[in-house]
Specification:
The protein has 2 helices and 4 strands, in the order H-E-E-E-H-E. It has helices spanning 4-12, 61-82, and strands at residues 37-41, 44-45, 57-58, 91-95. The strands form 2 sheets. Strands 1-4 form a two-stranded parallel sheet. The two termini are 22 Å apart.
């Protein structure tokens, strides 16, 4: 059994013990900006490190596929709303942290 304090801290801080739940939602996008900055978080790891403060989940193919589908739908909604302005974005950051 793992010590109690790390388990409590993991629940209080960004790390989560429970699984991610993906649900379809209607998103209302704001007015068209001059340029965009996109941050894409990839929360899947081979193992969960006790010192890592980021939102993360042990890699599961089914959960990863649902996340990928949700991510692609969100990107498509930005493309629909903002169109060609996506080509003038300032930055795209995709973050994944290998163990």
């Amino acid at each position: 059994m793992r010590p109690l304090l790390p388990r409590i801290l993991r629940r209080l801080f960004p790390g989560r013990k429970d699984s991610f739940i993906f649900e379809r939602q209607t998103v209302i996008l704001p007015a068209k900006p001059e340029s965009l900055n996109l941050y894409i978080h990839l929360p899947f790891c081979r193992q969960l490190c006790p010192f890592c403060p980021y939102m993360k989940e042990v890699y599961d193919p089914a959960v990863s596929a649902a996340y990928q589908e949700a991510l692609l739908q969100e990107l498509e909604s930005y493309l629909t709303c903002y169109g060609a302005r996506l080509t003038s974005n300032r930055s795209i950051l995709a973050a994944a942290r290998p163990p």
